[in-house]
User: Which sequence fits this backbone?
């Protein structure tokens, strides 16, 4: 297999997989000096947009290709002149695979208990799938609903403010990622990434996520994708229960996991287990409290809070793509920005949703939480992103490991009060925020938060050090991306659930340092920061369990 990278493809040839492949194939064969007849296979490996020069926006493509005579591949690469050798290499096609069931694996009994996975977000789903593929018949429990019922609960909350604390944008099949943009970008490299992407495609995600540099699925497609993964877990002997909540853990005399207690519609139930994967997500505050009360070691960690910022997507497109904005091959433009301020803190964007909307992401009565989402088409009028500032452990009072949770909750409750107590969100124009002046209404950017907004001052819901960093950093972001200078951009608060304020320390074996048999996993435990990293961590933890059996 040969990899040819840095292939320049003009926008006019980038409208589809076929046209990109055709353009890349021509370049690759010309570079290698080979005829088309020598090619047996070619596939897109990576496609990105190069917009560094606004007058020359184009695609940069990498492909993997195989020759009809595999022996000729090494010869072709070795014969390249220096000017071409820098972008051509031999690439081994070692795709990761799921673990195969061991021939001696026994069915779960009292002597060989099945592993239990708590939480059906990305980490929990991929942990359970890995365990199921290995023949361990896991039990996966999820406090919220399946995708269909969960969608109904979210729609009902958006329409009338009837919050279901067990099934909402935070809780339910797929976790918080299901009702998001479904971004699959990650800053890490891991062989499991390809396996995760292929699993999502098998479940109905678009094929282009296999090669796009910034892939996404969309909240209109993700519910069916995660439903497909559940069906796959069940087909391989696993059990998946919804509306099933962890309420207690039991430890033996040595401190190891001995069992758990579950709350279901029919009452409380005990399940014996020795391997407990805790993939509950960053909003399962009752689980954090349970761990603390049962003596499981917890630690504070840095997290972030702020607000959602909305701009007109057309302004973002022009700022990013110049005169190429609106080209059908490009779609809507994303951004990722950071500003290091004189306050000693950084202001940064996170979970940017092109053509999306700000969503109502509360999971507790009396608190307002914002997040972002977009459909696969990303065709909405506005762009939005979290605008965040780090909160460090030393910013928090006392020594309670859950002090960060209490800060989040206090800000959410203040936002609820500012919104009038009906899950409206406080909102303020960026110009007014920078000037310290409350806002009374929208300009060109109409806020998309579905429960409606209460115009006024967002800063009243946030700590002073976050507000100061936002005020210092916004002008710097405007210098980096012109659209951020729009005074009628909208801030909607609060964005408090971008990351977990705690971690559950674990060792090299992925088990809790204080509780053998407990496997902290994913975002809630402090080991991931998005769909891909959470799914990867789920596979990592499940593999650790498989290897010790």
Assistant:
């Amino acid at each position: 297999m040969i990899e040819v990278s840095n292939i320049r493809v003009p926008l006019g040839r980038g409208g589809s997989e076929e046209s990109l492949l055709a353009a890349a194939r021509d370049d690759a064969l010309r570079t290698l000096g080979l005829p088309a007849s020598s090619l047996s296979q070619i596939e897109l490996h990576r496609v990105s947009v190069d917009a560094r020069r606004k007058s020359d926006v184009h695609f940069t493509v990498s492909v993997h290709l195989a020759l009809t005579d595999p022996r000729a591949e090494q010869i072709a690469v070795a014969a390249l002149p220096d000017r071409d050798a820098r972008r051509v290499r031999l690439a081994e096609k070692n795709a990761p695979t799921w673990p195969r069931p061991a021939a001696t694996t026994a069915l779960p009994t009292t002597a060989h208990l099945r592993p239990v996975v708590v939480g059906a977000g990305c980490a929990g789903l991929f942990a359970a799938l890995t365990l199921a593929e290995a023949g361990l018949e896991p039990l996966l429990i999820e406090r919220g609903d399946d995708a269909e019922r969960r969608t109904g609960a979210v729609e009902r909350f958006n329409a009338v403010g009837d919050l279901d604390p067990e099934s909402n944008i935070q809780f339910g099949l797929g976790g918080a990622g299901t009702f998001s943009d479904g971004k699959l970008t990650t800053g890490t490299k891991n062989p499991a990434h390809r396996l995760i992407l292929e699993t999502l495609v098998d479940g109905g995600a678009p094929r282009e996520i296999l090669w796009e540099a910034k892939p996404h699925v969309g909240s209109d497609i993700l519910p069916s994708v995660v439903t497909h993964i559940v069906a796959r877990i069940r087909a391989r002997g696993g059990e998946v229960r919804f509306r099933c909540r962890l309420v207690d853990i039991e430890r033996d005399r040595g401190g190891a996991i001995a069992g758990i207690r579950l709350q279901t519609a029919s009452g409380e139930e005990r399940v014996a287990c020795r391997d407990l994967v805790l993939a509950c997500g960053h909003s399962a505050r009752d689980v954090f409290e349970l761990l603390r009360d049962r003596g499981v070691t917890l630690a504070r960690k840095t997290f972030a809070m702020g607000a959602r910022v909305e701009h007109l997507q057309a302004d973002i497109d022009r700022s990013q793509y110049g005169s190429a904005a609106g080209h059908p091959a490009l779609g809507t433009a994303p951004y990722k920005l950071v500003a290091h301020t004189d306050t000693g803190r950084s202001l940064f964007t996170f979970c940017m949703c092109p053509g999306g909307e700000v969503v109502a992401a509360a999971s507790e009565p009396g608190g307002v939480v914002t997040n972002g989402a977009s459909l696969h088409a990303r065709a909405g009028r506005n762009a939005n992103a979290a605008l965040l500032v780090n909160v460090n452990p030393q910013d928090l009072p006392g020594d309670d490991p859950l002090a960060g949770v209490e800060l989040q909750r206090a800000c959410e409750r203040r936002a609820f009060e500012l919104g009038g107590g009906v899950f409206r969100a406080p909102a303020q124009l960026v110009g007014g925020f920078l000037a310290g002046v409350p806002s009374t209404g929208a300009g060109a950017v109409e806020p998309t938060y579905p429960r409606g907004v209460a115009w006024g001052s967002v800063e009243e819901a946030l700590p002073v050090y976050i507000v100061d960093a936002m005020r210092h950093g916004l002008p710097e972001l405007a210098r980096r991306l012109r659209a951020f200078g729009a005074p009628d951009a909208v801030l909607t608060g609060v964005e408090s659930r971008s990351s977990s304020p705690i971690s559950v320390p674990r060792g090299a074996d992925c088990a809790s340092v204080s509780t053998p048999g407990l496997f902290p996993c994913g975002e809630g435990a402090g080991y991931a920061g998005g769909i891909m990293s959470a799914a990867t961590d789920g596979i990592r933890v499940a593999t650790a369990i498989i290897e010790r059996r």
The chain is about 30% helix and 25% strand. The CA atoms of residues 299 and 503 lie 5 Å apart. The chain has three domains: 2-90, 116-299+504-548, 302-495.
